[in-house]
Amino acid sequence: MKAKLFFSFVAALVISFAAYAQEPAADSVAEKVIVTTHDGVVRVGVIVSDDGREILLETENLGKIYIAKSDVKTIRPFAESDRIDVTGEYQGNDPFSTRYYFTTNALPIRKGEDYGMLNLYGPEVHFSLADNFSAGIMSTWIASPFVGVFKVSIPTRNEKVSFGIGTLLGSSGYLNNFKGAGALHWGMVTLGDRRSNITFSAGYLYVGTGTESYYAKPGVYPVTPDEFGGYYPNIPYQSEKNGMAKAPSFSIAGVTPVGSKSSFIFDSMFFVASQYRRSSMWHDNFDSNGMLTSVRISDESGYEKFSALVLMPGVRFQHREGRAFQIALAGVTVFQDGEVNSFPLPNCSWFFKI
Hints:
mainly beta, 2 domains, SH3 type barrels, signal, 12-stranded antiparallel β-barrel, Porin, 354 residues, 5-stranded antiparallel beta sheet
């Protein structure tokens, strides 16, 4: 009798442990996933069960639905850049959320979100090399000049605040025999998330063409009649490599959704540039009879200063996942020597996920 009671107790204990083991832990958090079927339908939810033949997906808008495994094309984790409207319908993924038009924000390019971009002036590609480090290449349609891009993202405990530093290193390429070069180093802070944010940037630009200029050596030079009846001063000329243009730079950029598949983008750049240039001033000397006797050349070299403001409001359209198109009605204003000159610079770009 005692043996039967003992075995009954053990059996009951085993059954209760088995039942408990089949229940999910109270503190476990199911991962939200995106399920795409071969017919292009996308569902977002939590996988409740998977028996190898079909999955039971619990969605926010449709409740629990069964999907045959043979119909499933991909299953991937739900990302921060994925968009869902108020009804729970999936609106797509934005792998281009780190980019405005020309500038970038401090958010990192994540694994699997490498992208390419085709502009009217040329192509570019950007890759994630680590969790918070990315690199890219920009060029023109003639493959010169070309620029290397590197960015380090610095997250904070506040998900709405991110810092970053970046650099552009460029060469003129085969144009001018690789003599031209330049760089732009900058830091930035981004406020907001991947769908809606604003970024403040500041940096320093320097660029040189690698070309040379010829200028007359300062001095006083006598003039003599030439074979055409005029006067020819024997003036020596010198050449000097043109200096680099240097400019502090500033930028404010942002993005915000204006629809389920479109976003308003604002980008801007402001440069305060200076460049040392060689220049000469010619002064004619005449005698008492009004005859030209000599030419005096003075050195008028100095720093040429100017400022440039580029404003780029635009709209980005993303009608399918992994593809986007944007257009910007940009304008450029140049301030130099008290004069202001402006001209339009409209452009458009095509994004594609690599």
